[in-house]
Amino acid sequence: MKTKGALLRENNTPWVIEEIEIGDPKAHEVKIRMEAAGMCHSDHHLVTGGIPMAGFPILGGHEGAGVIEQVGEGVTDFEVGDHVVLSFIPSCGKCPSCKSGLANLCDFGAMLLQGEAVSDNTFRIHTAAGENVYPMTLLGTFAPYMVVHEASVVKIDKDIPFEVAALCGCGVPTGYGSSVRSGDVRPGEDVAIVGVGGVGTAALQGAVISGARNVFAIDPVPWKREQALKFGATAAFASVEEAAMKIAEVTYGHMCHKVIVTVGEVHGKDVDTWMGITAKAGTCVLTGMGNMLDSEVTLNLAMLTLLQKNLQGSIFGGANPKLDIPLLLSMYRAGKLNIEDMITRQYRLEQINEGYQDMLDGRNIRGVIRYTEEDW
Question: CATH number of the domain at 2-169+338-370, out of 3.30.70.2860, 3.40.50.150, 3.90.180.10, 3.40.50.1980?
Fold first, then answer.
């Protein structure tokens, strides 16, 4: 079928809306009519080259929700009309990682940036000129339709607003899980959240729900600091340096049991700064993405050893997509998790560059692309 999509044809250029053609679902695949797509910072890493796909053009978008329109052979868990969230981490349920409880490290993840469908290693999306299109993390939610493997699809209740559901494909479980799973925040602990965009705001809520005593939000944007206080932060600061003295005062010099780093782009030179506000035997969780070519890190190795600190990487917040996405949405329905207020603005697909500029300017916690009948 012919539709449209936001494509990136080379690094450091704007997204362009072009006609694309999407094939029918093959074995273990489904076709989805998209309703909403979240605008995550990770897609901006495609623009800068921080996340290198296997080729161009790239169809962006890895956060989204929609309705199943067609199912391929062998699909038994889904049917036409189901409402679903697209998980940027697929979960096959069969590989060693999935079987050991590490579904966020599913072996299908090795193919996230290759562009070829995991079903048969062919391209499911092409431009009007017949070029192969590389969808972000096997998805490509910046298009009104998509065909994806069932491992990337999670069924949800039909009363969940699509714009809310879309954020649970990446930002909400990644942030919430960074605190609750990867960070294992315990009641009474002191926690710092560095960067309070979409992922950081979810991490902040995770820390609050886990019973953290103090939650220190750190972000250079004044408006985001104001929002962090509304979401439950006990104090907000413009920088780690500004926060350090107050954290030391409040914690009697012990610093933070957990530091969750959810900045838009991680730089190796900043790692030791974050470790500096991490307590003895504490954990610093790196959730924000750095450039894949960046291998230089500033870290005081002696203090890492002598103070027995932990530096923990986190993908998808250590979550199990098939389990945790419905659980988080059930918390939203019960009024325990505020996802709705994380959505700052909604855009049309044609406004994608405006939306990402708003993100870079610090005007959004999360922008969402909303599809309508004009797009389908």
Answer: 3.90.180.10
